[in-house]
Amino acid sequence: MNILIAENEFSTADAIQSLAENMGHSASWACTGPEALISLEKVPCDLLILSAQLHDADITYLLPSLRRHYPDLPVVALTSRNSLSLEQQIRKMGVIYYLIKPLNTEELGSIVSHVSTKQA
Deepest in the core among 31, 50, 53, 54, taking most CB within 10 A? Predict the structure, then answer.
């Protein structure tokens, strides 16, 4: 499975990329919203792990564009601010999981396995 990580925190992105690769998946990293959109155009992706607070783009800004172009792409949201209203808003836009930082790699690994199994 090919995973795109859109995350501006290097340590978080590196941990996710290591986890994905240790699970046998390929993973690439984009640190801005536009970079993530360009990456998706160039390389098909099976799962997007998207930070809710990129430096240049908020998840509520990115998701409508993502959904127009990639309506079936599974998206996992990561956030450092636990907000019920944000969670409800982005789940309506098709986010399948909403994870709170600091990252729980065991939980994320379980999600990656679940998505991988559903696509097999």
Answer: 50
